[in-house]
Amino acid sequence: MVAVTVFLAATLLFIGLFNQTIQTAVIYQRHRATATKASDLLDNMLLSPGIPMDWGQGDSFPSGFGLQDPEFTQYRISSFSLMRLNSASGTSVFYPKTGSYYSNITIGSKSFLLVSQSSAINYSIASELLGIKNQYGFQLYFNPVVTVSVTEEHAAGPLSLSLDAYGTGFPLANAHVTYCLITVELNGGAEGNPAYITEYGTVLTNEQGSATLNFPQIDDSEMSYALIVYAHLGGLVGVGYHERVSSEDVYVVPFIDNLSEGKILIAHNYDIEYTDPPSAEVKYNASLVYLAEDFTLREMPLENSYGHINSGDGSPYEVVNIPTDNPGILIITYKKSANLGGIVMMPWGVSALAFPVVFGGDPTKQEWVATDMRQVTVGRIAYQAKIAVWSLEGYQVIG
Amino acid sequence: MMRTIEVLIVIIIITGAFIAASFFAVLPWPRQVSPVNLRRLSFTTLQLLDSNYDLSKAAFEIDNATIWGELQVALSASLPPNVIYNLTVYEVGGSAVGAELYHDLATISNTESLGSTSDASSYMTASANVTFNVIPEKIGEHSGGGTLYILNCSDAPGWWITGYTAHSLAQDLYNLLSSYFSDTVMVQSTTELGVILDGNPLHGENLQNAVVINTCGEAVPIPSSYTVYNDNSYAEYCYEVGKRVNLYNWTWTSIVGWPFYYVSNTNEFSGSQNSWGIYGMARVSNPGLNAFLQGLDNRASYDDSGTSSTSSPGVVYLSTNVLESSNYYGIYPSPYQTSTRALSSSILTGFHLDVTTYVFNPVGGSIPAAIYRHAGTGSSYQGAFYAIGLTRTPDIRLTALGLLADYRPRLYRSEYTTYGTSRLVVLQLGLVGGV
Fold this sequence. Notes:
By secondary structure, chain A is an alpha+beta fold.
């Protein structure tokens, strides 16, 4: 009797021990399957333009999800398809005058990318189109390979700016840098509207990937300006930018309301940030520039490019239409008063200002997250595409 | 007591089994469970570095320290800090007989060893001094002929080409096929068609052994001078066309539907319509095809008692031969189509025809699309007919593909592996740190 009891106890004990080993192995296998899925999913998204192929430049929803640039092959990603992804990094912005929410990829204080959520593809739709809804969760992250940070060292006489270009693993030493300084002339346009003038130059970074730019003609520390910098070396191209404005509290905000028509709403910031605003008229002047082969910016004229807006009821927003399907930068100079104004920028296609894009669910607090990455080109800008994938089906483990 | 000893032995055995199983069942490291796909990362990094052809430039300027310095900085900057690399450029082939296929020319690396978990991708770079191209063989350049006539008659409306115009189809055919022929002639009017039917070239081209493509669908343009052949609602004209196809050894191509079902000329038939409201056209109906085949069979006179029929086999599939040609020539129509005007296999014996290319697989006695050649004297052929019995609207790529599959002009491609034109770049990546 004792022997039988001991035998049964020992058997149960070892069944439990074996069970632990087997279950751990099963979980590892499931993790491996998730990792394989992550790699496949990333390639599926990056190597297919979706259906229809040009869905990134329209407002209708695709029937197949893919981010490849339809005009190219391999890992070249559409700057506009990325723009239509509902950002997971920024809080949506509500604009009362249209009654709509806008997906927010705004970077910094005066560089906006706000896309109407009626045009934006959300995570749920993408999961369904990819055939992984309720099976896998994912987050897709596009980050520029080259980061160019610009710091103002001296405000005026001369304006001195230092820039640092570095990749994901190493400074971009001896890189070729092409820059464009855009200075705002508050009364330089027609009918007292603001305008801007540009100045181009090139410089090489040193061994640490740094360079200093001096502009002795800037002798007013209140002068508004923006600097756009392109650093390129051995196939890598990165973008950096920096703005200084004299009117920080009153400015204009561009909203992308209709992608297929290129319809941009020019709004007063008080209508978004303040519920009971003091009214302050802002004059603006909008223009579109795009990146040429030699890394200089070429201006494309816009119809109805200037006007004025105010906040509150009875003061409608203004509209400009962008007439191109090529990536560019919408530059809007604005003027609050004779001495105060500034400049805001909006990339038309995320690559124009190398905006990062985060799309999808939240990988934190997941039991296991598999990741993978690829090097891609968006527009001409080098990006890293990373994906995090986790299982939504759970792991039923006993013991 | 004995039982207790047995139980102890069993426990020892089970313990031994557990220890042995645990020893062999080694669980992998997390990195092995969820590895970064280094092969794809390597490949995409090479593509990124070559996005402005900088990598290709470096591969062919291995003595240029500046370019290689920039390449190493760009490579280091583009990879995450925990990724180590080794990039090697290989020369492809060798100028000397018996030389090894690849030999390394230059290497950059940030490590002495890539460890056990590494992977690599290769990337072929091309020299900026070399242009790679494809030169097609001209059809008939060695055997006479080599002329492509595309009927683009402005005074002849089409039928069953819904959604297209004869002009747009002619333009597409020109783009698809002109490089394969010595001369491509657009026949711009029914008058010009009359000229070539009379045996006279339009621009000094070789009239014999030509390919003639009728872009008007089920209608055939008829020159005013040929309207005298009006017996049996112009079926006699179809016979005359068949005679000339035989005489000049042409390949007559009908791009869609029931061939020779109508004749069209806006001047001659301005007051008549094809019974579907299209003016400038007269309906020949089913005797037209029979009359053409009589002419192709070189019969002495037209027998107006003959008629023709077609069938509807439904969904039909491209033949193996044509699928191969699809890959060879890079023309990719849908491999399955709907056929509602397939010709009967009985015409093969009735008119002394051989099928040299089945474009679609036959379905029973129905031939959805094929190239028929008329048996001439001896083993040679005299005249040919390419009929595509699909339903409207025509996919003009099928016309081009069928002709290419039958004539099989060769493509002379530049060799990417010719010595000095290409270099192979291999990027091997490994991981350091972590588990």
